Amino acid sequence: MSKLPKEHQFIDFSDYGRPLARIIANSLKTTKFTPVDVTVAFVISGLIGVFCIFKGYYFAAAFFLILKSILDAADGELARIKETPSYTGRFLDSVSDIILNFIIFITIWFLTDTSLFLTFLAFFGIQLQGTLYNYYYVILRNRFDGDTTSRIFEDKTPIALPGEKQKNVNILFFLYKAFYGVFDKIIYALDKNASEGKTLPNWLMSLISTFGLGFQLLLISILLVLDLKEIIIPFFIGYSVLIFVFIAIRKIFY
């Protein structure tokens, strides 16, 4: 099931794993496995990928990082299929993503001669990239009655949905705000009127989707397989310049 009506769907370069994610979700439809179980599985896959990076098994690392992206999509698909949306799953997914991203970049720093400052700059950059993409994407989804579990502005703790505990939502939302709050504030400050603008065209959303975590992990995987791990950190620093390009296009034309 798509998060958007058909006429507003765009080619999402970060969502290449969706077809396999749907197969996985459908296979789990009648089982006791929950979306949170799938989220835990993608965390495990990501950690195995990090271990493989550390050991120099780059093809294996690429496999597990891409598998992580597929499972990352499968948890949401399973939630929609089972009709069990939850803020617990939504925030656990995001918190897990940022922790894994940090571990990946610290591992790359440890294995290369890149400075710790540049490593943090690259990590900060990819988080801003992902935040901009999610910001525009959630605006689009909310505008056209797509998936509304995610909100444009995560400014207060949501009320737990049926089947989840408010305590879990409270804890995970606190962690979400602690990890993502600064990135949300920066992107909002850069383009606070985005939700009032015109609908972004599909071609532009496709370009911005290259900021999605799935595409970021794909790029990291390709660079690892090509034994170019030394350029991963400088690449993502440079790629972050496009944040300002996309925001400028949005402000000028839409």
Automatic annotation (TrEMBL):
This chain belongs to which protein, by name? CDP-alcohol phosphatidyltransferase
Q: What is one term from the GO cellular component aspect held by the record?
A: membrane
Q: Which UniProt keywords apply?
A: Membrane, Transferase, Transmembrane, Transmembrane helix
Highest taxon listed in the record's lineage:
Bacteria
Q: Name one GO biological process term.
A: phospholipid biosynthetic process
Pfam families xref list: CDP-OH_P_transf
Read off the InterPro entries from this record: CDP-OH_P_trans, CDP-OH_PTrfase_TM_dom, CDP_ALCOHOL_P_TRANSF_CS
| Gene Ontology molecular functions | phosphotransferase activity, for other substituted phosphate groups
Similarity comment: Belongs to the CDP-alcohol phosphatidyltransferase class-I family.
Q: What are the TM regions of this chain, as residue ranges?
A: 38-71, 91-111, 117-136, 203-225, 231-249
